[in-house]
Amino acid sequence: MDEIVLAVIAYLFGAVPFGLLIAKSQGIDIRNEGSGNIGATNVFRVVGKEWGITTFVLDALKGFIPAYFFPIIGNVDPVYGVLFGFAAIVGHSFPVYLNFKGGKGVATSAGMLLGVAPLAVGVGFLTWIICMVVSRYVSVSSMVAAVAVAATVWIRGDKALVVNIALSVLAILVIWLHRDNIKRLLNGTETRLGKKKESAS
Predict the structure, then answer these.
(1) How many CB atoms within 10 Å of residue 95?
(2) Alpha helix positions (H), 103-160
(3) In whole angstroms, what is the distance from residue 109 CA to residue 123 CA?
(4) Fewer CB atoms inside 10 Å of the end CB: C or N, the chain?
């Protein structure tokens, strides 16, 4: 029962739209600007670098806190951190406060991963940087990094099977949430980072 309660709390915490709140504090409704996405990338492009970074950190904490601390609070097996972290990611991507229209979950996923598989996060972060340098596409970098994280835990084989499966499902979710970006990539209309035109990353 405690696990269910903590998972619900994790979802509600993950659903807090920090990007929207930060943008509104600057007099901007981020849903009507750029890509319309409430995530860190759109805040970065529309509101400013410092606000985008702040949004990324806060969104990452939404995944890290449930994944790392909730198992301690609930006195349950650390493997439950995956469940709590995943609940936070679902909350971010499908927030009840915003009619279930949220962000892509990349920052929140990174936070969750840091709580349960820090080495995989390092691999994912390095992969993201390399992809960004080569392609300048945030969307491509995010998707490739998510796959790299899942591949890392399977290759190392030092995590519980449920963790490996959960991170694989997470990679699929990240790709699915970027389906509009994939369409624009195929059409040649996706915008690279640094361009004035906004993309939904």
Answers:
(1) 21
(2) 106-116, 118-135, 138-156
(3) 14
(4) N
The pair of structure tokens assigned to 189 is 């209309």
Please compute the mean of the pLDDT values over residues 53-75 and round it to a whole number.
95
What is the pLDDT at residue 199? 39
Which has the closest alpha carbon to 70: 89, 79, 102, 136? 79
List all residues 6 or more positions away from 133 whose beta carbon is below 8 Å from its beta carbon. none
pTM: 0.74
Domain boundaries, the chain: 2-187
- Pick from 42, 92, 47, 43: nearest CA to 65: 92
Give the pLDDT confidence of 90-122 residue by residue, as tens digits: 999 999 999 999 988 889 988 998 898 888 889
Inter-CA distances, 92 with 151, 155, 158, 187, Å: 24, 28, 28, 28
Question: Are the C-beta atoms of residues 112 and 124 closer than 8 Å to each other?
Answer: no
Task: Let me know the angle formed at the C-alpha of 54 by 191 and 124, rounded to the nearest 5 degrees.
Answer: 60
Smallest CA-to-CA distance from 92 within 58, 54, 137, 140 is with: 58
State the distance between the two ends of the chain, measured CA to CA, in whole angstroms.
Answer: 36
Separation of alpha carbons 187 and 170, rounded Å: 26
